[in-house]
Amino acid sequence: MTESPEFAALDALSTEELRERAFHVARERLDVRFFWSVLRHLPGSENAAGLDGDLSETASFVDDAVAVFREFEGSGLGEEEPLLRAKFIDYLLKHDAPK
């Protein structure tokens, strides 16, 4: 099976670039489910436990989720990096309209 050009272009990006792009799309979509799935896979994901608040305040939750993820910037994602890269690429392939 061959890779699509879109996949190859995304796979060539750094994890941080993928994260920024995926978070931008998910923030526009107010996609709480995506953010929650990412946060569950962060090293020490118990840090995400503080985000159990009222999910009816979606925009606030999204901002809080982004803030939690930013705590990990530059610190490495360890064994979870390949999984997170795959999540970001999959999300972008499904939800980021071609430009």
Could you please describe the fold and organization of this structure?
The chain contains five helices and no strands. The chain has one domain (5-95). With 99 residues, it is an all-alpha fold. Helix content is 59%, strand content 0%. It has helices spanning 5-11, 15-29, 32-39, 58-70, 81-95. The two termini are 25 Å apart. The protein is globular. Helix 1 (5-11) packs across helix 5 and helix 2 (15-29) packs across helix 5.
User: Total number of helical segments?
Assistant: 5
Order of helices and strands: HHHHH
Contiguous uncertain segments of 5+ residues: none
> How many structurally independent domains?
1
Number of DSSP-assigned strands: 0
The average pLDDT value, as a whole number, equals 78
Please tell me what the overall shape is.
Answer: globular
Main beta sheet strand tally, sense and closure = none
Helix/strand-derived class? mainly alpha
Distance between the termini: 25 Å
What order do the helices and strands come in, and which of them pair?
Layout lengths: L4 H7 L3 H15 L2 H8 L18 H13 L10 H15 L4
Note the main attributes of this structure.
single chain, 99 residues, mainly alpha
Question: TL;DR of this structure?
Answer:
With 99 residues, the protein is mainly alpha-helical. The protein has helices at residues 5-11, 15-29, 32-39, 58-70, 81-95. The chain is built from 5 helices and no strands.
